Amino acid sequence: MPLILFIAACLVVFFYGVTLYNGLVRLRHEVSQSWADIDTLLAQRHEALAQLVDTCTRHSLCAPATLNQLMETRAILSEAVRAANVGRMGELEGQLRSLTSQLFAVAEAHPAHQTDAQLSHLVQYLRQLEDNIADRRERYNDAVNLNNVRIAQFPVVVVASLFGFRPAQPLRFAQAEQHHIDVPARHQR
């Protein structure tokens, strides 16, 4: 009888451990999927920014230094995204958002801006992408929070340590850069 109780206890512990492990795998995949969603939107935004820079260059709407700085920041941010360096991304996102706001302000003041449909479309598209990125960043940070809390709880911490589950890093922007990019209101439809 004691042997049967011992075997039953071992089976309960084993299946409980499997359940905890599977829950951690699910959380890790939610974090990964949320990150992939952000990555896709950032790639779309980076392409749209390149088109915006081309359009601004074609019409001489902005100083070349501003456009070069925007493209340089965009390239460095792309590297941070590829490396999944979330901390660096948050810092660079702030710079990119600030430069984009400057670009919109300069472009809005230029008379050619009123007649260029492509520029107006790009501004609207970028605003939509920014909103989507903010939504996906919130979803990612929620998934990271759930993952990190679960990994720190007992007895899950034991299973997490045994199988190498690590906390994920949330994506945070500088406080001043958490607001929407200032897109001219008259160009929205």
In words, what does this structure look like?
It is a single chain. With 189 residues, the chain is mostly helical. It has a single domain, classed as de novo design (two linked rop proteins). The protein has helices at residues 2-58, 64-82, 86-109, 117-152, 156-163. Helix 2 (64-82) runs antiparallel to helix 3 (86-109). The radius of gyration is 23 Å and the shape is rod-shaped. 22% of the residues are buried. Residues 176-189 have low confidence and may be disordered.
Q: Would you list the SSEs in sequence order as H and E? A: HHHHH
- What's the CATH H-level superfamily name? LemA-like domain
* Top-tier CATH class: Mainly Alpha
CA(first)-CA(last) distance: 77 Å
Radius of gyration: 23 Å
The dominant shape is rod-shaped
Count of β-strands:
0
The proportion of strand residues reads: under 5%
| Secondary structure category | mainly alpha
Q: So, CATH architecture?
A: Up-down Bundle
**Count of the separate structural domains:** 1
List keywords for this structure.
76% helix, de novo design (two linked rop proteins), 189 residues, mainly alpha
Topology:
Blueprint: H1 2-58, H2 64-82, H3 86-109, H4 117-152, H5 156-163
Helix pairs in contact: 1-2, 1-4, 1-5, 2-3
